[in-house]
Amino acid sequence: MERTVLVTGGTGTVGRGVVERLAAGGHRVRVLSRRERSGRGPGTAHRGDLRDGRGLDAALDGADTVVHCATGYSGTADLRQARRLLAAARRAGVRHLVYISIVGVDAIGFGYYRGKLAVEEALAASGLGWTVLRTTQFHQLVVRICALAARPPLALAPDVPVQPVDADEVAARLAALAAGEPAGRVPDMGGPRVERLPDLLRTYLARSGRRRPVVAVPLPPIGAAAGYRAGRHLAPDGAVGRTGFAEFLAAGGGR
User: Fold this and answer.
1) pLDDT value, residue 33
2) What per-residue confidence (pLDDT) applies to 144?
3) Which ranges does the record mark as transmembrane (predicted)?
4) What is the pTM of this model?
5) How many whole angstroms separate alpha carbon 154 and alpha carbon 211?
6) Whole-number pLDDT of residue 42
7) Looking at residue 113, which CATH number applies to its domain?
8) Which of 31, 38, 183, 188 has the fewest Cβ atoms within 10 angstroms?
9) Full domain range(s) for residue 28
10) Residue 255, class by beta-carbon neighbours within 10 Å (0-12 exposed, 13-18 middle, 19+ buried)?
């Protein structure tokens, strides 16, 4: 069934892939953007700003599905923006909103995560049909962490387990969910392997041709760090991703 889908954050790491897949599937795709889009790509650009709600009603007019990939700089910003989007979606008669969240938002006491959980709760209470997909961290985030750690002569890395997932694979899952019926919270999605961050840093250094001694730094067993130590941000039962971190780097990811 052909749908009219608005994608927020449609120029971002995951959003681009969602737009491409939905367009390839024959859906009418709109991309919400605060600025004029540069270059050409699938989807129709619609000017709108989740920060103040400008342009949302026009962008949502006639849309039956929304994929919400946009994110703010904090949990409170995420919640404010989501509330504006939900209100506009109700006015427009949107029947299905798909939201990407993070594994562990209900188990780790981190402000950004608490905001994501609050968005999930607002969506469930909105009266709209909804689907939530929680994923583990993207390879791109691990690359950024490794790049920062690799700057000094001594590379320090938190000694935590990670299960990075490929953003393109997440995009494919989100597009499939958007093409289907509201499903509530669907199974979490993670990368193919759980590994230690210091080991991924060593892989990153080897791939980039840099020599650095790597020191694994234990996290304290308190606060949010305790949740990461315990692996509450992992999805071992949802290890459906196919591309691991080494494969992502070998394919040119992270450049």
Assistant:
1) 84
2) 96
3) none
4) 0.95
5) 10
6) 84
7) 3.40.50.720
8) 38
9) 4-136+167-185
10) exposed
